[in-house]
Amino acid sequence: MPPKKKEEKVEQSPLYLGRFGTSLKIGIVGVPNVGKSTFFNVLCKQSIPAENFPFCTIDPNESRVAVPDDRFDWLCDHFKPPSKVPAYLQVVDIAGLVRGASEGEGLGNAFLSHIKACDAIFSMMRVFEDPDVTHVDGEVDPIRDTETIFQELRMKDISYLNDNIEKVHKVVARMGDKDKAAKNEYETMLKARDLLKEGKDVRKCTWSNKEIEALNKHLLLTSKPVIYLINMSEKDYIKKKGKWLMKIKKYLDESDPGAMMIPFSGALEQRLLDDPDNAKTFLEENKTQSNLSKIIVQGYKTLGLQYFFTVGADEVRAWTIQRYTKAPQAAGKIHSDMERGFIKAEVYKYDDIVEHKSETAVKAAGRYRMEGKNYEVQDGDILMIKFNVTDTKKK
Tens of pLDDT along 65-82? Predict the structure, then answer.
């Protein structure tokens, strides 16, 4: 009788701040009248009010936008399936935040709860001048606006921690060292509150895996990853110049090192949307391009998301997963039985099918691989799942 095959041990994936899952959202956040709703309209090709009024958007508008990907387009063109399903980015347009929102100013508490329901932030920074679009503070100053936003988020996090630290402390006082998780949570919450009082956002600080586990129970506003969107006038965007660009870069280099900032022009994007027939000509004549695709792709990535493909004559589909997802859990996105009865994943790369033109040729070239339970699915992998589910119940 052959020796019994050892069960493959599944390795632990790294932890990071934020919700676990794939139904994650990114919220467009900023002070009033900085171009959030115009950007949302263009991004999702919808028409919601975008008026010159501080609280034009009250309830958050939510939509999803397909993630542009040349790989997906090529696979669809190659296999020509009747069903084509891309990955999607969930986007929420959140009303303007004003100074004092953490204490209920404007429609503060409702807006902050809308941000809490999101998993990442597009921080909208207005640098365009327009006398017809009133700034809530009178004059345009994107650095002041950004400081206002994140100060309000820090204040709300401090308020939340003040309300909840005592609850956890009661558990620690009762259980002592017997409840190590509660003790870790209590100490982590105290550390987070101290850092927030020093003006530091949670996402900018260093945390151990145990501390991240504790923080993820609370999903603090300042723990969410941020992309800074610089909303320029059409003229300045085309010229790639503006008095605020270098000031913002210097500010972010000092206050949020490594942060991503993406310049764009809401006015230009609106023009392209309103006149699609002449959009390409306009871009060529002005030697410029839309930055919407870059914003969507980076928004998707900052949520910690990626996708793999399944391909065939019937369907080409992008399946959203979180980074570091193992093959069985990726299979479970297709169907729960595939995860339960996972045997192996047959994998090849997009570049392989582009080079060799068919799965048969990919196999012949030795580029078709078999991967087990510990395989971390990579962005753009093409998978075929082998599985077997047996009914173990007695008849």
Answer: 999 999 999 999 999 999
